[in-house]
Each structure stands twice: as C-alpha cells, then as structure tokens.
Structures
1.
Amino acid sequence: MSDLALFSPGLILIVGGLLLPVIPKFLRPAFMLVLPVLGFAYILGLENGTSVTMNYLGLTLEYLRVDRLSLMWGYIFHIAAFLGLLYALQVKDTMQQVAALIYAGSAISAVFAGDLITLFVFWELTAVSSVFLIWASRTPSAYRSGMRYLIIQVGSGVILLSGILLYVNQTGSLVFGPIGIESTAGKLILIAFGIKSAFPLLHNWLQDSYPEATPSGTVILSTFTTKLAIYALARGYAGTDILIYIGATMTAFPIFFAVIENDLRRVLSYSLNNQLGFMVTGIGLGTELGINGAAAHAFVHILYKSLLFMSMGAVLQRTGTIKATNLGGLYKTMPWTAGFCTIGAMSISAFPLFSGFVTKSMILTAAAGDGYWGVWIVLLMASAGVMEHSGIKIPYFSFFAHDSGKRPKEAPLNMLLAMGITAALSIGIGIYPDPLYAILPFPVDYTPYTLAHVLTQLQLLMFSVLAFIFLMKSGLYPPETASVNIDSDVVYRKFLPALIDKFGKSVAAMDMAGRVRSLSFIKNFIGTVRATHGVTSPLASNMAVSSMVVWALMSLAVYLVVLFMAT
Amino acid sequence: MSKDAPSENKEKSYWLDRPGNVKKLIWGVVLICVLLVLSDFLYVRYSKYEIEGWAGFYGFFGFIAFTGIVLAGKYLRKILMRDENYYSKDFGDE
C-alpha cells in the first residue's frame, strides 16, 4: 500500500457505523460482522514503523502511527469488537448498533494516533458515542447514570486538552510519546488518563454506569474505554514510580466492594477495576517484563472480562435480573452459559492452562524482581481476592448455590457462539501463549509453565476454594442481601446534592424572612399613615366655618399669651 | 462442577442435587490441598523472598487472604450498606 492510501484504521468501523442506518435491516448483521474483519485484515497489512501525517491549520497531525504497542492493541480491539458485535447480533436497536461501531472505531483510531490532538479527538469520541450504550437501557436510572458518565468522561477530555495545550506550549511538540509527571502538563494529562483508567477515587463512574447498560452494551463498554486509557498510560507514563502504588491500591480496594455487592454485573465492574490495577502496576514498573506483562494482561483480560460480562448478560436477558439474591441453580437449564462463565472465572483467577496464568504472573514476577516486596504481597493478596469475587462468587451465586427455582431457556445461539469463541481463545492462550508473547511490545524472556509456578499458583487458588468452603460451612460468609453499597460516588450523588439543597433552603429561608419583615414594616407604615391621614382621621375630616373661627380665636389667644410672656 | 445436559423435564435430578456428591466434592478439594502442600517438599524452588520458599506458604497465604477479605467485607457492610432504593428514592422512580 502506498502511504497516501493509508487511513486511520478505526475509520472502517466509524464510517460503517454511520452508513448502518441506510443498510437494509436483513443485511445489517452480516455488515456489522464484516467491518471488524476488514479492519483486522487492514492492520495485519500495516508495516511496523509506518507513520502518516497531514497538515491541518498549521499543525502536523500524525493520524497513523504503527508500532508494536499500537498494533497489539489494534489486534485485540478488533477481536473484541467482532465478538461483542456477534454477541449483540439479535439486538435490533439501531442506536445501539451505531453507537457500538463508532465507539469501537474511535478507540481503535485513538490507539493508532501518533499525536496528542488526534488522540484527544478520538478520546472524546469514545466518550460521546459510548454513553448511548448506557442510555439504550431506556430506564430513568440508566439515563441519570449515563449523564454522570458523560460529565465525567467529557471532563477527562477537557483536562486532557488543557494538559495538551500546556504541553505543546512547553515542548513545542505534539508527538504522543513519553510525557512524565514533572511538569504541570504531565500531571494534567495523567489525571485525564487516570480518570478513564479508574484510578482510586476517580474510579466510580465505572461501577456506576456499566451495570446500567444493556446486556450487550456492557460487554462492549468493558473492552474499550479503560483499556484505551491503559494503552495511553503505557505510552506516556511507563516507569512512572507513582503508578506502581496507584496500581497496587487499585488491585486491592475494589475487592472488598466486590465481595459485598449484590448486583453481579457491578461485581464484575469492581473486578474490572481490580484487573486494571495489575496493568497499571506493570506500567509503573516500566521494565520490559512489566510493560509486556501489562500489555499481555490487557489482551487476555479483554477476552475473559468480555466472556464474564457476556455470561451475566445472558443471565440478565433470560431471567430479567442480575441480583445474586434472586439467582442460583441456573446451571440446570443454562449449562452452556454456566460452562463458559466458569471458563471465564478460571481464566481471570489464573488457573494453569487458562489465559490469566500466563500474563498476570509476568507482572508479579516483575514486581518481585525489582524488589517491591510490599507491592508483591498486595498483588498476591489481590489474586486471592480475584478468586473470591470473579472465580467463585460470579459462577457460584448465579449458576449454583441455592436453587432460585428459575428455569430460564439457554442463551440464544449467537450469544453462545460469541461466548464459545471467547472461551476457546482464553483456553488457547493459556495452553499456548507463544503467539501472544510474539506480539508484545518487547521480546519475551519469560516461561510461565515451570513446576514451581504451576504448583504454587494451584496452592494459592485451591486453598482459596478451601477457605470459601470453610466460610460457607461455618456460616461466616456474609449472606447476599438486597442492598446498595456506597462508594466514592456518594459524594456527588448524595452529599453534594444534599449540601446544595441545604444551602438553597437556607437562602430561601433568609429570603423569606427578609420579605416578611419588610412587608410587615410597609404594612405598619401604611397603617400609621392611614390612621392619621386616612379618610376618617381627624386631619382629613371636614370642618364647619364656626369651628374654624373658634380654632383661629384660640390660636390668636395662645399667640397673645406667648408674646406677653416673652416681653 | 457438573455440566448436566439441558432438559425440559423438571423432575430430572442433577448430580449436584444429592448432598452426598457435594460432600465428595468438598473432600476432593481437601485432598488436593493436602497433596499440594506435600508437593512443596518434593522440589526446591527458587524464591526471591525467603518466606516464599517455605512449604505451604502459598496455601497458607491464600487461605488467610481469602478469609480476611471476606470477613473484612462483612464488617465493611456495616459502614457501606444502604437500602436498595438509597439513590433511586430521590427521584421517585422504581
């Protein structure tokens, strides 16, 4: 291909999404599935090192930059888009279809953006297009949640833009490369990336909005926004120390929320947050093993997290609920979904022969190798936590546990197909990771299948299962309860509105008191005037001529007396 | 975990429905755990940190971490748990 013919790869999906409404309905499923295949074929043909620029308003924009990092993200984004669209095939809602295509396409284009302006444009486009997947639920709570999501996502874009402007001003360069946090610009851009990758305390948009989207919407959402942010961190902030600790915190704190959460798609959102923590830690370490680990983990995570969201989406679609309190025993009529969910659960828990096993350990090994003893322990604890909320809780409470009496139909064929392919990929990578290792940013010098690694990991996981059995049998395991748990979003969903409400009320009260006072003052004043000058008052009454004479005589007399006394 | 074939027949009994089988599963897990700890004595593993090399470290750590997380979550509920309509009641829907 000549360089002139090269365009940003995401445009295939974006233009396809814009054309979709005019495609006849019966052709749409095939059309949607062909788009990611075309995109994938296109980036397979791109040569590493390709760079295409254009001049716009005096700026040099590199809208296509091909290197190992962008290619790996490009591959997995296309695979995930295909699987997500296959899963969503029976959805007849044009709005969702268009939104999903534009959203996936803009994430892909953002990954191939070589300059910060192009990155910003597609960064914002992912925000604006993805919110429709949340609104597509068409419930009042989804609408409100989508609004919060949009404000936060666009907010991240605004912070990114201000960071970019400062950065360009300081360095004179638009190139998106290592940025670092020394400058104010670097800090601002990190915050923008941090919002999208759900850093602690900036995270809550994720758990708020993803469970509100449609069953297939959540599957598609779970792939792109956060992993685009992880890519951006890997590109701009590799080896930034603070990320090691931010990442370790991210692996740990969502676990506790996941344990007590009743909405199983929200459990998966916390679990997603926890998985991002592993990647952020790897990026913070910044070694070749750390970056490779983060990239590889992002790749397999997209697959098994999609798989888990797919299985829970199927349960939601078939039963109408996703609350653990209302589920259980579904394996009897949804055995395939249960099986695929279990494969996703074992992949995320990193059982040997499953995909998480060959990637997560790269990050732990990198942390231990660099002497981060405390971080290593936290990551190890978080691994036991993953076993809890995603390995056991998700499949156990939906498909096993106490029988809810629900006997839903098995998931539709296209959903089963999407889950089946995703599950096969998760096991395939687990058994034979070499093709994945071959596309990582750096050459891989890592062997996952050593006797020690297999046995220690099995020990960690099986003793976690044992602990679960112990807690269930002893009655110590907290029962599932219909409830919500407050997280940092309580600040802007409860406290701030309450504060504003209180402030408004006190202003209103002061205003009311002021009005009452001035009204009564005016009333009194008018009363006094009326009393003295009113129609019936003495000053306004008519007087007879005789009494006038008497009054004149009397005042004359007073005048005389006064004059006499004065002389 | 068993993956029985789907069935329209509501009366069908599943392997997991019988308490005896659940017990078998549990003892299976216990047996695997014991074997895994014993396996630690059969080879020498390179360990970056001393404690990591101890026999049964990973099992012990996994058990304690898992239990600790669940129990901590249980107590966190006292602080964090709210009524299911905590947010939606402000808007008068649901």
2.
Amino acid sequence: MRHAFTAAAALAVFAASSAAHALEVQTAVSTQRVGLGEQFIVQLIVMSDGQNGNTLADVRLPLPPGMTAGPPSRSPQQRVSIINGQMTQRVGVTLSWTVTANKAGSFRVGPPTATFGGERAQGNPIPIEVVAGATGGGQQRQRRGFDPFNFFDPFGQGNSLFPPGFNFKSPFDDDPSEQQQPEEPTYPDELRVDKAPDQIAFLRATVTPNPVVVGQQVTLRVYAYGGRGQFSAESPNEPSHADFLTYDSGPDQVKAYLVPVSGIRFIAAKLRELPMFPLHAGTLRAGNMKMGFAGRGYPPGPNGGALSRESNWVNVVVTEPPLNGRPPGYKIGDVGEYHIDATVEPRRVLAGESIAVVAKLAGIGNVPFKLQTPETRGVEWLEPALTEKMETPGGVVQGSRTFSYVVRMTEPGTVDLGEVSLPYYDPKRHQYAIARATLGQIEVKPNPNAVKAKLEPKPNDRLAGVLKARDTLGPMPAVQKPFSDRPAFWVALFLAPFGVVFAGGALSFASRTREKLRERGASLDAQLETALREARELAPNDTQGSVAAVERALFLAIETKLGLKARAILKSELRATLIERGLPNARAEALSRLLEDCDTLRFVGANSGIDPAELAQRAAKNAAEMRGEKLSNPS
Amino acid sequence: MRRFFVILLTLLVALPAAHGLAAPSESERDFAAASEALKRGAYTEAIDRLELLADRGFVHPDASFNRAVAYVERARSSAASPGDLGRAAAALSEVLVLRPSDEQAELGLSRIRAEISRRHAREGVAPVMARDSLGRAATSLFDENVWATLALAGSLLLTVGLALRRFVQRTSAGLTGAIGIGLGAVLLLVGAGMTAGARHFRLSSSPAVIVADEARLLDETGKPLPQRRGSADSTSVPEGASVYVLERRPTLYRVAWGSSEGWLNPGQVRILATR
C-alpha cells in the first residue's frame, strides 16, 4: 500500500493560487484515481512572510456527494532562504484532509480554502476519479497490524516530519508476504556505535562533512536505537537547524537493523537525513531531535507518556571560502559545482526592442539565485523570471534554476552581449571556478521611436556629477598613531607634575632629616659616641688627646645615665657619689679607676704601662654596659 | 673581492627598488581594472572588484571613493539594487575616516544623505543623522590626539606652576605658579578625561553605516524593539545612517544609533575600514 501511495504522491498536483497574491498557496493530492472505499489525502500548503501573523481560520474543503473527510490536521511550516545574500524567512501551515471515496465516478474536490494571517488563501480544485475495486492509489481505512515505524507514514495523522514521496518500509510489517526480520549482523556502518549512552533507548545525531565552508552542503542524520525490542515513535520533532538552510529529504526506505552495542541488541534505524547549507561562518549547532519510544519493553516517561529521548547536538565548524584566488563578484554561499547553458533570441531587433535570454544554471549544491550579467552600453537587463527544479537524489542537493531575462537593446549597432557567469567555490577541488555561457552578438537596427525614450529625464538625477572617479591611487595619508595608545604618553602626562611634587617632598624630607641629624649630633649619646670614636682613633698617635676623649666620654656616660655632671665632683668623692646615685659598686669602682688611669697616663705617659687603646676600649665597654644596668634606689 | 661586494650590494639595493617601480602591486592592478570598468559603465563589475579589494584588506581612501562612485552610478542606472546609496554613504564615510580632509567625499556624503532623506521623507522614516550620546559627542568635538595634546599642555603648565611655587621664593613667581597650577590642573583633567573617553569609544566600538533600505532595531533574541509611545520612530534606522557597532555575534550586531541601542542583522550594517 505504501508503495502505491508513494507513487500517487509523486503525481501530486501543485498549483499556485492567483487569488491571494501575498500568500504562496499550493494544492497537493496523494492520488487522482482511487478505488471505492479508499482514502486519499488533499493538502493545502500556505506560506507567507509572517508579517500579518500566522493565525489560521475558516478552513474548508468543499466535497462532492459521495465523499467524506474528517477535520484537517495542521502542520506548521517554516522556510528560510537566501537570495543575493539576504536571508528571508517564510512561515506557513500545511492542512491535510483524509478524504474517503464512497461513490464511484468522476468528481471535483475543493478548492480547499483557509484564512491565514487575515488573508484568504484558495487552492485549486482537484479532479478525482473513483473506480470500483482497489487501485492501490488510495489508503485503506485500517492499518494491518503493528508497525514500529508507523510514524513515518507521511500522511497518517498529519503530523509527520516527512514530505510526500518517501517509501518507508518496515521490517516488522505483519504482512506475511512482506515480513522481514531485523538483519544481523550486516547493518550499515553509519549505525555502528561503540558505546551505548543509554541501555534502553537513545537518539544519535551526526553531521558530515565537518568542517565546511559557508554554502557547502552538510547532512544531518539522526538515528534511533531501542534496546528493549520493537518500538514506535511518539511525537518526534524536527531537529534544530536555525543557522542552516535545509532541504526536505529523507531516506527512501526506513529499514531497521539489529545492531549490537555493548552486548545489547538494539533495533536501530535512521530517522532523519537532512541536507543543510550553513548560512554563515562560525561554530553552528544542529541536532537535538526529540522522540518518544513506545512499546512493550519501554517504560513510560515521568509524565506518563512514552519514554522521551533526545539526540545530541552536533557542532559544525563553518568558515568562509579562502580569499586567495577569489574571483570578483563571488558571493559568499555560492558553493558547489555548476555549469550554465544559455539561449538568446531573436538575434536581430530594432533599437528599443527586447530580446529573451534564457540561462539555465545547473549543478550540485544549493543552486544560486543570481547570475552575473554583462554590462554593456545600450543593453538593459531586466529582473529575470526564475523557475527551478531542485532534487536531492541520494541526499545530495542538486538541480537547476532557469533565469529568463528580458534584455532591452537601446542603441543600434552590432552589440556583443558578452557572457552570463557565476563565480563559485568548488569544495571538492578546494578552488574557485567560474561557470560561463557566451551569449554572442545581436544586430540592433535603428529605430526612431527609441530616441524619445532616451530623452526622458531620469528620476534621481540629483546625484548626477556629484562624484568623479579617481584614476589613480593618491598618496596614502600619514597615519598618526593615537598618543593614548603609547604607555609613555600616560607616564609623561602625570609623571611631570607628580615629579615636581615628589621632588619637593623629597627635598623637604631631606631637609627634615638633616635637621634631625643635626639635633641628634648635639645629644649626649651622640657626644658620647663621638668621644669614644675620637679616643679610639687618637690612641695610637696622640695619647693626650685620647685620654682627654676617654675622660669626656666617661663624664658623658655618667651624665646620660644619672643626669649627673660628674666633672664638677672631686675624683676622690666620685665613687661614693655614683654609689649614692644608685650605680652598682663595681661599676662605680670601675669608672673611678678609669678616671685615675686617665690621670696616670696623662702625667706619667707611656711609662705608666697603661695602653691608651686599651683604655679607650675599657671606657667604651663600661659606657655600653652601664647603659643597660639598673640603678639601685638612690639614697 | 671588494669590487664583487660593491656590485652585490648595489644589486641588493637596486633590484627591489626597480621591481617596485616597474610592477604595480596586485591591489593597484585591481584598482586600475575597477577604474576601467567604471569608465565603460560596468558599475557592477567595478563594485565587485573594489569589494574584493576591500575583502582582501586593502584600505585606501581613493579605492573607497571609487567604490562610492560605482554604487552611486549603479543607483542611478536601471540596474540599481536596494541599499546602493547606503553602501555609497558607507564608502564615503570610510574615505573621511581615512582622510578627514577630503572635501569631495564630504560633499558627496552630504548629497547622498540628502537624497536618501528625500526618498524616505514620504514614508516618515527617521532622519539619517542622529545625535550621538553626550559622552560620544563631547569626545568627538576634537580628534583624540588634540585632546591628548591639550592634556600634555596642561601637564606641562601644572608642572611649571608647581615648580615655581615650590622652588622659587619670590612673590611674583608664587602668583604665577598658582595660576599655572589652576589652569594646568583643569587642562590636564579635561584633556586626559577626554583622551581616555575617546580611546574607550575607539577601542570598544567600530563606526559603521546602515546599508539596507531601512534597518529595524531588534532585541537580543532578534525580535523588533517596541516603538516608544509619543516619540519619533527611534527603532528604525534609515539607510546611510552612521551607527557604532558595540558587539558582534555571528547573526546579530549590537549597535548604538544616536542615543538608541539595539541589535541589527550583520547584512544591514557596513563596518568602516580603518588603519
């Protein structure tokens, strides 16, 4: 039955409606010849630019007597296309009626109508011939038995992912004549998985090739794996592919295979094969298809529905084709392998008349929407009418676009039209190429009526003569690098004033330090240090000087420690006085002896046996030790 | 031996110079080819060649100027494409970025913008020129280096003033120093602030021009921004308007247009080439 349906679908009638000019309306029928009691599908596809919203109302399919139909199913549509580098998006809906033919004869079904976004969309009426007996063209009312892949029925419930034209054959169909068992172990290599991410069921998405250039075809494939026996798909959604232009394509026949993964026999099948064209450079994401697995072996999901699984995301690395070797006029996205054939007629015209140039661009890839036309004086190319025929045999997008130009010849003479061309990037050869078609010459005879048109003023002549092209490249203006990009600028900006402030501060600091040092130099400690130093320095050569320095040091040490000016005290009374002031006996004795030794050395000289250096050393030692000594309570 | 070295040295110096004189660079050849296409009225070919030149990173005010000429001429022809005048405005804006003293480019840009405004006047589209934000307007009063020079002068004045106050004991020097400190500090602060501001705007945004018929500002998710009630249309940026690109994503650019901010499709914006 599915074969028959597919064949019928291929005969679908598509027609654009002229009633709703802002909408794009197509009518389709699965077959135009059905058997009595069989069903057929009528589709109304409405697309718009979405500016008026996408509300749907007043859906009707007028049926002749002898035919019945249920309410239509609705399937939202979205289409993205790039024309001349501009991305446009269209939204719409597909309405599908399942019509049952209950009476033999020739009938006229429709036209189907609907109001979409406030505008009336009307399809075309469809002639249907209903014959007695089965034709194989329609659908039977009931399905036969359990089919794990019944979601692939393109018109079954109207919510299919797939367009008409596919023949999805299940290996689990219970028709004894067609029954197949899952094939093992010969399964396609694309289904091979080293490790199952889930032991019950999982979806897997892949994309090839990767990386690609903008406009090069990649194919997104989504595979379903069920580890608990046969399953049917519940509410599968479309994989995400926001950054890609997609073409509808699917496997000709969905086949299930037994694929052993990690010791578990999974029933695996390819769900979706989607040719896509990246719209821009970057790391683009696709995938994330969701689907419910329903079957005896599959537990229900958390919400009670079928076990839901979603595929992984895949990242596609997209770059722009290389700049090296890029021909002028190349548009990003023109990628593939193309050739152009062109016809021109007539070859002889009067000036002011037009000729027709039909150029057919064909090849592999997302065939571009625009050709480069030659620019010749006296030749005006009007916007072309475009027809296309795109296919995806074997999942490879290819086809042709035919550009029908009206070319106005305004000046008499023999005009060489030149050539129409398309620069494109060939990803297989990794280089640019140009598809060309030479158009030949046109003989244009003078026409007095054409002069009149030539004299008509142009509407936007305000810009005439405003700019005059420059023949040569002038000197390049010198580029002054911004000062602020140089760290030295910021340093210089603040260093100078801060430098003055810093210098002033430093000078003040130095001045204060000097003052402090001066004050410090006048203190008793400083004098003591000076005296001791002098004593040491003078000892080898100047005994008298050294002795005087030692004496001075001792008196300063006593004054520092006790606040007593000892020079005014008789040396014979000094010891007692020091003890009285709290100095330890031993220290008082030592100091007295030192002073006596000083007198001895002064008056007797070297014969006294006292070494001036040793004397200075003892004085320093006593002064240092005395500084840390505690005083007893002075009496 | 010595003679050999002299000859070798002469060859090393002379050959590259001779090569430079004899053979124009690839960019120069492409420019010449584009100019020749312009002369014979092949505007699309000229545009293709000059755009390719720009794609290759060749930046020159005269190449940008001729690109503007090609777009204007195509806009005047029967082969006009939407956005041609916007692209011409972008090319001339680029000329003025590269060579601010180009009077012909300045005149041409004003004429093109006037023509765009005239064409859109009936549709009630916002004027092509929009007032910049206060900060950007203030910093763009002078060139960044002028602000920097002002800051340097302020720094010098402040330094002299401080030095006079600190190191010279005479009363007259002290007064002069005080004036120098006051004036120098103001100049330094204003100049340095404006320099820093101009530098920030230069590094954080790129000047660009709208090259679509009209560009509707979007939010981050790509939905059109709502129109403010009771105000002029501040969400539709007209063709040829100058904007600043603040952030670039693969599918959207964040732009500042006057005091408005929003997102635009990259195809609607042409970022100006700078050196």
